[in-house]
Amino acid sequence: MEISRRNFIRVGTAAAVGAAMLPAPALAQSGKPVVLVVGYPPGGLTDLMGRLFAAEFSKALNRQVIVENRPGANGNVATTYAANAAPTGDTLLFASGSQIVLNPNVYPSFQTKPVEEFTHLGLVGAGDFLVTTPTATGITTMQGLIDTAKQ
Prior knowledge:
Blueprint: H1 5-21, E1 34-38, H2 45-61, E2 65-69, H3 76-83, E3 91-94, H4 97-106, H5 114-117, H6 142-150
């Protein structure tokens, strides 16, 4: 997956600004590395953005930041793991919107309440979603897709 120079700069800038904005207690000064928990497997967009963020955040903190992938249940595994981590500031959740907003409403057995249990520190990046169809369908517009779906 290729990331544009513009998005790389956005992530780096967001990391530097985010580090400067964190309250002092959140930046625990232990010798341990900061763990950035990502709820998706290595190689995907969320993982890539997390790794770019971690590299810049590490420079800003002058402290090692390790990405720890905890995939499963659309990010619920990572969210639960981070919520149950010791509140030392050494564990951060790199979350998607679905982990915070959708999952508590879609998965009735999900016990974590991300809006209440986490403090949102900042937006690192945003992505686009595309709707595509195979060329063989002959559908070339969104309206064409809607019309076909209605039939």
